[in-house]
Amino acid sequence: MSAMSCTARRWNLAERGPAEIHLDNVGIAGAVFAGRLSPPSRQNHEHLSLGVQTTMASVISILVAHPFPLACELMADALRSCGHQLKPVHLATDSEGVLAGLEEKQPRIALISVALQDGRLAGLHLLCRLREQHPKTYPILLLDAPDPKLVVEAFRCGARGIYYQTGAFAQLCKCIHAVWRGQIWATSQDLEYLLETLAGTPAIRVPGGGAATPLTKREAQVVSLVGEGLTNRAIAQHLNLSEHTVRNYLFRVFEKLRISSRVELVRYCMGPANRAQKREAVQKNLGPRSLEPAHPSSARQSA
Fold first, then answer.
1. Alpha-carbon gap, residue 180 to 190, rounded angstroms
2. In Å, how far are 45, 118, 125, 131, 145 from 141, measured between CA atoms?
């Protein structure tokens, strides 16, 4: 790591005011991050206390992981002095240090930067291990800026919250308390990323008042051919049915699978759990050459 000097402001409890400190071997990202870690002002402190209910006995143990050692120390100092019973118990700069701290201290909250000294996505990769090996520790991922892929993957791996390091320190305190109480901390933009990803996944059978009705053999054949891109006319020719009958089958399939369009049906067919089953059913029921339409031009016609 190249040596460099930066200046940041740190809260000095003895002087009750800001004091200048010198950052060596930290880097620009660490200096900027550290500069945002001054505890909230009196006004912010009062505002924060309205949204977070704590008691003197509710001490929250916290692991702090960041690639820059001094940034870890600054964050830990700010958390200790914020007046909300937050107690940093372990500081780490790489994955090995995080795992050791989790095993030894068993903190309630883990603040983990997406980048650690052993990789720019090392913190993200730790989330899955943390969920499996330390389920009682709730992880909060620290990101520099909103990123759809990182946000979705973080929650997929078990993050209970995401805090952007460009945000106010008071928001970090709120985030910690919310996650500690069992809530999920996410911005409206984060939720939008998740909803967009969910909307793009194949439709699934949603358990309602009762179990979804299984498809009949003929309905499964129709679904398989739809998944191969055949039109209603081509499907009717393969199965010796009328187009009207094929449409009726599709209406029943839509109702059973709780979907509303042909596009959703194709997504359902392309799902990992259905792809192999669909091909097996086609080969069994229609024969090895059944996927070729009787008239190639008919496959290009609209349903």
1. 19
2. 23, 16, 11, 13, 12
Residue 206 pLDDT > 70: no
Domains of the chain: 35-199 (3.40.50.2300), 217-300 (1.10.10.10)
- Report residue 16's pLDDT band, with 50, 70 and 90 as the boundaries: very low
d(CA 263, CA 14): 65
Q: What angle do helix axes 262-270 and 272-286 make, rounded to 10 degrees?
A: 90
- Structure token digits, residue 248: 């009726």
Give the bridge partners for 19, in sequence order: 10
Tokens of 21: 């400190």
Distance CA 71, CA 6 (A): 12
Q: Kindly report, residue by residue over 134-193, the tens digit of the pLDDT.
A: 999 999 999 999 999 999 999 999 999 999 988 888 999 999 999 999 999 999 999 999
For tokens 């939720």, the residue is: 191
The torsion of the CA quartet 157, 163, 166, 168, rounded to 10 degrees, works out to: 180
Residue located via tokens 């109480």: 181
CA distance 72 to 96: 16
CA dihedral 76, 82, 87, 88 (to 10 degrees): -10
- Maximum CA extent, the chain: 89
Query: Which has more confidence, 127 or 19?
Result: 127
Cα 138 to Cα 130: distance, rounded to the nearest angstrom? 9
CB 63 within 8 A of CB 137: yes
Q: Output DSSP code: residue 216.
A: P
